[in-house]
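ligand=dinuclear copper ion
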Amino acid sequence: MADSYALVPVLSPAGVAAQAIAEIGWVLIVGATVLFAGTMALLAWALRRREGRAVRPLWWLVGGGLALPVVVLGGLFFYSVQRAPPWKAMPPPGALIVSVTGRMWWWEIRYFDSHSGATIVTANELRMPVGRPVYLGLSSAEVIHSLWIPALGGKMDMVPGRVNHLQLQAIRTGVYRGQCAEFCGEAHAHMALHAVAMPPEEFDAWLTRQALPATPEVSPTLRAGRAVFEAQRCASCHTVRGVAEGGRLGPDLTHVGGRLHIGAGTLTNGAAGMAHWLTEVHSLKPGARMPAYARLPGADIEALAAWLTSLQ
Ligand code: CUA
């Protein structure tokens, strides 16, 4: 399970693109330090200089004002163009193609299963196989969002009406926190996304499970939880495949119990977290469009939380 993967610090590069960005960053920092030290040494030399042959102004103008910047900036330009991750690469052969749509304030994620031809819809968690390029098609349903998973790569805006692309490739397993990087309204700060990089065979097994309809309920509590879901019309916004389909306003909950978090990174998943979310959604995530269900009897909330958590 994903729980065994460590959450990796955001500035520790774990992706091909992030490594290139980190390397360019270090070259810039070291280069700028050398230039700064050189300039200060020159200044100290000039201040201490009392006599001797005058330095010709033309030499300084041409050397320091023209030749040096051309060499340094030209070198940096060609280095960074050659080293930076490509902006609009076509998907490389064998890439996993995933579409991510920004919503207020969560992420809709779609996989296309090439074996069955099925589309698999999930939310807020980007599962990916280690070592395989993942080609993301990014868009938005209403306002501009921006996807940024710093440990894996640079960020890319998600603009309504167009599709931007971003290619990520994890080089080791782990959980990488991402964040919406473009102010998009009240709950912008609570719009996190976690990328989970898994061994390829585990990813394939995960994708196969995601394509299945919801787990059937096996106990009276779980049956009661499903009954609450149906009675409260949760399906007007949420799809649970095999139970109620067509709800598109909120995240697909078919396998919500198998995710690491609830509410786009707001809470750790589990029955307790789910019950907390159902009753206090607006204090946890101000602006969230889901109504709170604090008025329901505690037993109903517990059953609903247990049923949702069982949807692995
Ligand atoms: Cu979505 Cu900020």
